[in-house]
Task: structure prediction
Amino acid sequence: MSLTQLRLGYVPLTDAAPLIVAAELGFAAEEGLELDLIRLQSWAQCRDMLGLGGIDAAHMLVPLPIAQALGLGPAYPQFVLAMVLSVGGQAIAVSADLAEAMRSAGHGFGFDDPMAARDALARAVPGMLRVGVPFPFSTQSELVRRWLFGGDLAGRMSIHTVPPPRMADALAAGEVDAFCVGEPWASYAVERGLGALVLAGRSIWASPPEKGLVLTRDFAEGRPGETGRLMRAVWRACRWLDVPENRTTAAEILSRSEYLNLPPELSERGLMGRLHISAQGEVRQYPGFIRFHEGAANFPWRSLAALFARRIAGLHGLDEATAMASAMACFRTDLYRQHLRVAGADLPGASARVEGAMLHPTAVASEKGQMILGPDAFFDGETFDPPFAKR
Amino acid sequence: MRLQGIASVRSLANALWDKGVSGMARLSIIVVERDRDRALRIVDGLMASGDHAITVIAEETGLARRIAEQRPDIVLIDAGDPSRDVLEELALVSGPMERPVAMFVDRSDENLTRAAIEAGVSAYVVDGLKPERIKPILDAAIARFHMFQKMRAELAATKAALEDRKIIDRAKAILMKARGIDEEAAYALLRKTAMDQNRRMADIAQQLVMAAGLLT
Result:
């Protein structure tokens, strides 16, 4: 049988694993697909390649298709997010100098306490704090704003875009004092002795969606057969990735020269939830540091789209209600239901939810009976109930 | 005399531009390019397209700050450069004191955009700059980037050919030693095997060298 070839773009990060695993371990071939994986160097390039037809689908920051829907990018055909690829996987690092100052003031580097880390950081930073994030429209940007805006640093911090592989160097060159990035690039800075980890992204927001599978609307609606096959292959790869025994193998595959081109030991840290927080080798266990499947992680809740849209609208002077409506329309729960039901995915009864309401794993109504959603609380206790969202 | 004549015609044109007869001043262009040789070639190409103030930035460190200080009309950068995301951030900033910048694909004619993407060059252009002023610059940049692509492809092809020849030479030597045949016969044998199996000679040679390595 000849395979249908699809071109997929990804940016080298641990959370590109679903696409790489789908291609490498036969999940794509089972669906009659051959995935041509194209390594890209920036999110702008990823967006342009998808917009101009250079690739059929992309591993993309969850807020990026939302920014496109709000008109904050080049005028390309509409993008849709068909499924979420990963939740969590981000870490916040501070420079070696700041880490030293925090340590000597008695901070314990627990890696899971946003308040303690924020207070210690505020005391250690004499003036302005410059924080690096990978892209203006990124989950990292949302996490950093949420974390710092309530504290002493709110009025004396600025956020700057730094490409992930350059984060460590930007810290070393004094361009930024701290950063929030997806693995393995935080561990990479620690390994080079340039910084220390202070916080996991999931400690700020227990369920922060990080990357999504993004296609153009024309492709997703015009070629439903291929879209469905791709979604099923990737969904099965995500399920495989959340079997704990598979994580070491995943780290090996990801680290190959054609993908991340880094020692497997680095990406293993995030995948196994065993992070070295300093060059001295202090280890913090963080179970579920990154998830690819469990807790209905792949479902593109429309309420998530609204949450990111509200933030982006606020930053760019757009009307909130309109922004939320446009954003929700590009999170395609209908495609998810249509294409993944046949693969055996359990489907929630609702397509939107109150974000931040769950402190513990919670059972909700679903087609197969009960679905367990992971905790999704924000550290500041906010809950977000999107208006207009049909549940 | 002749040279001077051309020079004076040119400076007259410039003077007219500067006086705003055609509403044009010199454009300030930043080229973000780490490779010195490539940067020089791009600058050469741009110079030939008109009289511009061109600055090359070769370092990633402080890129955003340096661009903001220069306030360029156009920034040219390799489409695959990781620093592009830094420019994206600049393009979004549009406070009252700042000049909005957009990616060129936003409002250009489609052919030019496609040509730029295919050549692998991205342009960020300050708001309000007329398309007819952008076009010659982008055309020049596209021509240079095409040349780089060609050079890269040629280099890769040369390298591959060299590798092929090396491995075929090693395979020939193994065959000559193992079967006591001369070079010509060894070559003929490799070629026949490749043709019979419908494979490249270098692939057959590679397998032979690997197998021989296992056997000794």
